[in-house]
Design the sequence.
């Protein structure tokens, strides 16, 4: 993975773009870091993604940073999805959790008090103060 520095601003960049941008240059199959640096192109790493809830949040690219040794990295950032999209995702999750327990509510099965409470808590989750941006601890625990 590479970035290109232009006017002090880093952006993602590929070796294919380098070849298109400089069609009269014959680059080796795997150009060295020194050759790339001559064109303002540098390799970068990306750390592991932080924990996030894909139901209500998006993982996006953060900023490019350079450490004291000159190595570049691209951080991650987490942002909440728009309210309507987050609500739709949270309702889908809630409905899936409810459907996973539907067999407990069949007429020939005795529904335990704990399961009744769990299912009711799932139905009531939309009234939770953090709805739809719930943490894992906000969701009821299946008995």
Sequence:
């Amino acid at each position: 993975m590479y970035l290109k520095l232009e006017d002090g601003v880093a952006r993602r960049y590929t070796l294919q773009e380098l070849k298109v941008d400089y069609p009269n240059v014959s680059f080796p199959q795997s150009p060295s870091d020194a050759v790339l640096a001559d064109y303002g192109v540098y390799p970068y790493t990306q750390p592991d993604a932080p924990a996030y809830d894909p139901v209500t949040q998006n993982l996006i690219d953060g900023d490019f940073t350079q450490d004291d040794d000159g190595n570049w990295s691209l951080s991650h950032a987490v942002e909440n999805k728009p309210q309507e999209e987050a609500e739709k995702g949270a309702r889908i999750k809630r409905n899936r959790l409810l459907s996973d327990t539907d067999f407990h509510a069949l007429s020939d099965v005795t529904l335990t008090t704990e399961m009744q409470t769990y299912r009711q808590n799932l139905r009531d989750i939309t009234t939770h103060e953090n709805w739809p941006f719930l943490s894992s601890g906000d969701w009821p625990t299946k008995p």
Observations:
- The mean pLDDT is 93.
- Residues 2-80 form one domain.
- Residues 83-99 form the longest helix (17 residues).
